[in-house]
Amino acid sequence: MPERNRPPDEHRYTITEVAQLTGLRAHTLRWYEEMGLVTDVGRGPGGRRSYEASHLRWLDFLAQVRETGMTVADLTRYVELVREGEESVAERLALLEAHRCRLDDQAARLERCLRHVDDRLASYRRAEQRLSLIAEQTSGRSGHPVPPASATGRPTGASVPAYA
Fold this sequence. Notes:
Blueprint: H1 15-22, H2 26-35, E1 42-43, E2 49-50, H3 53-67, H4 72-84, H5 89-138
Antiparallel strand pairs: 1-2
């Protein structure tokens, strides 16, 4: 049936269209097919790949788990299990739960790192405010007295942490 006469649910996509829609490179799409991660890709005129909407949904899943760091080996194993059918549901569940645990650990590490960055940002913002206040006071624009200078020449109370 010609492309324009097909119902919308039977729309076929070229590899270029799939690459644009998924953000995956054509090379990656071919490699996924070669690895067996994507199957049943039809062929159109001249042997060109012809994808269906179900391929787009599957490729979206693959891209999501790859982005979370799932290894190609685990992904390949997962695909094998999917092909085995319902008898492999428990093993698929275990594989995805293990991956989820790794993601939880990674998220906790990132959260700790984020707290350190936030602490440093807060420290710099406080320092910036102190410096602004000191500059304002030393210029005589504020009605506040200029704080006495320490032996280092810096106004007292304007300490700079050693780790800055």
